[in-house]
């Protein structure tokens, strides 16, 4: 299993040497602590000898997928967004010399603030505070969906069309590559979704791919101070990206969640419908025209991702995250596919 913390003695000495050369103002020795969140790339908080902290991000220790964990791409995206209406941490350094750490990695500034990760971390928020945080979350998503890609140098990040086709192809391929069991529903839903792809109704924009509260840091006033984890970012359909985020928005009467302990179970948070209304008002984009298809696609895609987590668990990799037992993760995948099938039936 992966360590919950890494000491300077266990971390490769070459990493500390590289950091000392690259990061002015962050002198050694370094103490590394793994952030127990996320099921893929690893995030460390690094404390320098002077007590200043920064963040280091690298691929998982095991079970890496060929088309995932691209550190150079993630670094480039956040570097391009610096100074834009989309708040991101300042990038400090990127290392593509795999003799240093066996993999590429990058460092960025530590952004202090609040991370709403689970129900307990949001339990103290009243109705006004929940509304403030939600509006800021929505506004930041609208900002990266509508940003001028040419102006920030990201217009060549990916294709600008056929996003849904690309997503269907990509996640089907990931499931096939990481296959550890036979689940016919993956193929069946892939065929149904591929045969009913809706026409994109908004201009392609920057799609984060996994945007939700715990991939952001909130400032003291509960506005978004930084958007994190751009590993899955591409150029694509803003509606698909928003509906994906909306499905993380668990409500108190829900029985099936994407997160194990969703923060939005606090009844002071706005409803999914209100979040949808705010996004439509701020963006001018109608997200309800093909809602059943986008919901079916989202639940199918989430099943694909969690199936990947299941495969990595069987190989001993958890991304530092406390997760359920492997058989429980597999059961979640099956329930997600059932939910996707119910939405698909109403397309």
Secondary structure layout:
Elements: E1 5-6, H1 13-22, E2 31-34, E3 42-47, E4 53-58, H2 71-81, E5 91-95, H3 98-101, E6 105-109, H4 119-122, H5 127-146, H6 149-152, H7 163-177, H8 184-194, E7 205-207, E8 216-218, E9 224-227, E10 234-236, H9 238-246, H10 272-283, H11 291-314, H12 326-344
Antiparallel strand pairs: 1-2, 2-3, 3-4, 4-6, 5-6, 7-10, 8-9
Structure at a glance:
This protein has a domain at 5-109: Phosphorylase Kinase, domain 1 (2-Layer Sandwich), CATH 3.30.200.20. The protein has 347 residues and is an alpha+beta fold.
Features:
single chain, two-stranded antiparallel ribbon, 12 helices, six-stranded antiparallel beta sheet, 347 residues, alpha+beta, Phosphorylase Kinase, domain 1, globular
Q: Helicity level, as a percent range?
A: 40-55%
Question: What structural class do you assign from the helix and strand content?
Answer: alpha+beta
CATH architecture of the domain at 5-109: 2-Layer Sandwich
Number of helices: 12
The count of DSSP E runs of length 2 or more, i.e. the number of strands, is: 10
Largest sheet: 6 strands, antiparallel
What is the average of the pLDDT values? 91
Instruction: Spell the H/E element sequence.
Output: EHEEEHEHEHHHHHEEEEHHHH
Radius of gyration over C-alpha positions, nearest whole angstrom: 20 Å
| Morphology call | globular
| Residue fraction in strands | 5-15%
List the quaternary state of the chains: single chain
CATH class of the domain at 5-109: Alpha Beta
Looking at the structure, the CATH topology of the domain at 5-109 is: Phosphorylase Kinase, domain 1
Q: What is the straight-line distance between the termini? A: 42 Å
Lateral arrangement of strands in the main beta sheet: 1-2-3-4-6-5
Stretches where pLDDT is under 50 for at least 5 consecutive residues are: 1-9, 62-67
CATH homologous superfamily caption of the domain at 5-109:
Phosphorylase Kinase, domain 1
């Amino acid at each position: 299993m992966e360590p919950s913390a890494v000491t300077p003695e266990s971390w490769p000495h070459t990493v500390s040497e590289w950091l000392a050369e690259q990061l002015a103002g962050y002198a050694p020795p370094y103490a590394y602590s793994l952030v127990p969140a996320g099921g893929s790339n690893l995030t460390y908080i690094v404390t320098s000898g002077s007590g200043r902290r920064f963040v280091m991000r690298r691929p998982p220790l095991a079970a890496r997928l060929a088309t995932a964990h691209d550190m150079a791409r993630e670094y480039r995206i956040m570097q391009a967004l610096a100074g834009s209406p989309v708040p991101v941490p300042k990038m400090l350094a990127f290392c593509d010399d795999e003799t240093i750490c066996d993999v590429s990695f990058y460092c960025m500034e530590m952004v202090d603030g609040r991370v709403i990760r689970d129900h307990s971390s949001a339990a103290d928020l009243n109705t006004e505070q929940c509304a403030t945080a939600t509006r800021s979350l929505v506004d930041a998503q609208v900002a990266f969906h509508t940003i001028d890609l040419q102006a920030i140098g990201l217009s060549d990040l990916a294709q600008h069309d056929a996003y849904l086709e690309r997503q269907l192809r990509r996640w089907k391929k990931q499931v096939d590559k990481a296959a550890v069991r036979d689940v016919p529903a993956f193929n069946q839903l892939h065929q149904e979704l591929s045969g009913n792809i809706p026409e994109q109704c908004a201009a392609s924009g920057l799609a984060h791919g996994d945007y939700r509260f715990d991939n952001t840091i909130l400032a003291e006033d509960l506005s978004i101070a930084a958007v994190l984890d751009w590993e899955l970012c591409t150029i694509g359909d803003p509606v698909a990206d928003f509906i994906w985020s909306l499905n993380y928005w668990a409500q108190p009467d829900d029985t099936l969640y994407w997160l194990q302990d969703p923060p939005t179970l606090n009844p002071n948070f706005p409803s999914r419908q209100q979040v949808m209304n705010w996004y439509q008002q701020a963006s001018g984009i109608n997200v309800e025209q093909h809602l059943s298809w986008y919901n079916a696609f989202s639940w199918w895609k989430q099943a694909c991702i969690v199936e990947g987590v299941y495969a990595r668990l069987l190989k001993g990799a958890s991304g530092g995250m406390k997760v359920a037992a492997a058989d429980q993760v597999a059961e979640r995948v099956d329930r997600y596919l059932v939910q996707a099938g119910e939405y698909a039936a109403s397309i």
